[in-house]
Design a protein that fits this description.
The chain has a single domain, classed as TIM Barrel. Helices cover about 45% and strands about 15% of the residues. It is built from 16 helices and eleven strands. Strand 3, helix 6 and strand 4 form a beta-alpha-beta unit. Helix 3 packs antiparallel against helix 12 and helix 10 runs parallel beside helix 11. It binds ligand V47. The site of ligand V47 has 23 residues, from strand 6, strand 7 and helix 15.
């Protein structure tokens, strides 16, 4: 294998990885540009093994998208709708609580709650939603509101991000998911999501959360009009933020799905590109404890293969995923615990059912 990596012209990067040395942005770019997926995957597997050994994680979770009404209307998104659209919906707090009630017989430990940037739902709605979920299922961990939504909530509450986060924590917020990051490059934001919180703004919200003791995740939406340089710049911003706070739990590369979006003329990502994004991230983000292969976006089969290309997590049972499926995603709507166990075991890993903060619930 070492010979294969050397033949791919990546021998110096192998040496750095073996020595636990940080890769430069130039190294990251070379990995992205390398046509030798197996060599890049081998490098990523060394890092994964060092950090996570034989363990591969999953969670028993539930997704709730409280509303698709959004004022940002990003070009790459098929989920967000104008308030006047026939497809627009919004749940009352009671309806959100009912979603949680409906599945009280399942061993769900996390509820993942995100929506759009709603023009007129009041601040109290969000606090009542968190408190309402806790009322129905007190022990559940609520992972809710992307950094973009948090910035919006700060705006409508007339408070700082810090004060807003304190309110949300008091109401039941446990951690923040990784969405809304897209690609931090101002060029990409200008072309695809000009109304959205800036990349720097996103990072600032995440760092503020970390300082308050809230963990957050990070994502990058790849496979549309971004360059490889912009991907590495994005990863570099995340790595620098993590050096400062250490609050990111996991990084999740999100594969762009074009159907029903403003970029519908683009093609879906390929398997090689999906695996490359997992592997480069694992090599480059040396300070991120976990890399997640989100099966909803890349399909359960490729998520399984990704476990040998740097990923140590496959997300979870999910159920009722809307964002990807609206954009043409054709993976299942949910996986059972048995399916996740089989996926991980056949990849040669020990399945670990985790909670949101990566504490072991059960080692299989
Ligand atoms: O922010 C939107 C992306 C994100 C499309 O933190 C699209 O564990 C692909 O962030 N094709 C939301 N992606 C989902 C998300 C997430 C999912 C699962 C786990 C976690 C976590 C986070 O989905 C959005 C946006 O970046 N997205 N449209 C699309 N057409």
């Amino acid at each position: 294998m070492d010979k294969m990596v050397e033949a791919a012209g990546l021998g110096d990067i192998l040496e750095k990885i073996r020595a636990g040395e940080r890769l430069s942005t130039d190294d990251g770019l070379r990995l992205y540009k390398s046509p030798d997926l197996l060599a890049v995957g081998y490098l990523a597997d060394i890092v994964r093994e060092r950090l996570n050994g034989d363990k591969a994680y999953f969670i028993y979770n539930q997704h709730i998208n409280y509303s698709n009404i959004c004022t940002n209307l990003c070009k790459f998104c098929a989920f967000g709708k104008d308030k006047e659209s026939e497809q627009a919906y919004e749940m009352t707090v009671e309806e959100v609580k009912n979603k949680v009630r409906e599945r009280l017989d399942e061993p769900i430990t996390e509820v993942h709650v995100v929506g759009g940037i709603h023009p007129d739902l009041p601040y109290s709605y969000y606090l009542e939603m968190l408190a309402g979920i806790k009322e129905v299922r007190p022990e559940i961990h609520i992972q809710a509101f992307t950094c973009v939504e948090i910035a919006h909530l700060a705006e409508i509450s007339g408070q700082s991000v810090e004060a807003t986060l304190k309110d949300l924590i008091a109401a039941g917020l446990g951690s923040i998911p990784g969405g809304g990051a897209e690609v931090f490059s101002p060029r990409i934001r200008e072309l695809t999501c000009e109304k959205k919180l800036s990349g720097e703004g996103w990072i600032e919200v995440a760092k503020t959360a970390h300082r308050l003791g809230l963990n957050t995740n990070a994502t990058m939406l790849y496979g549309h009009i971004e360059t490889l340089e912009e991907r590495i710049e994005h990863l570099d911003m995340l790595r620098r933020a993590q050096d400062e706070t250490g609050g990111f739990l996991t990084y999740i590369p999100l594969a762009f799905h074009p159907k029903n979006t403003g970029l519908a003329d683009l093609s879906r990502t390929t398997g090689i590109e999906d695996l490359k994004n997992i592997a480069v991230a694992r090599c480059f983000l040396d300070n991120f404890p976990h890399i997640k292969a989100y099966w909803v976006m890349i399909g359960p089969k490729l998520a399984q293969v990704a476990l040998s290309f740097g990923a140590d997590d496959v997300d979870g049972t999910v159920k009722e995923e809307i964002i990807t499926h609206m954009a043409g995603g054709d993976s299942e709507q949910a996986l059972s615990r048995d399916q996740l166990l089989r996926m991980i075991r056949e990849a040669g890993r020990q399945p670990i059912e985790r909670d949101t903060l990566y504490n072991t619930i059960k080692a299989y």
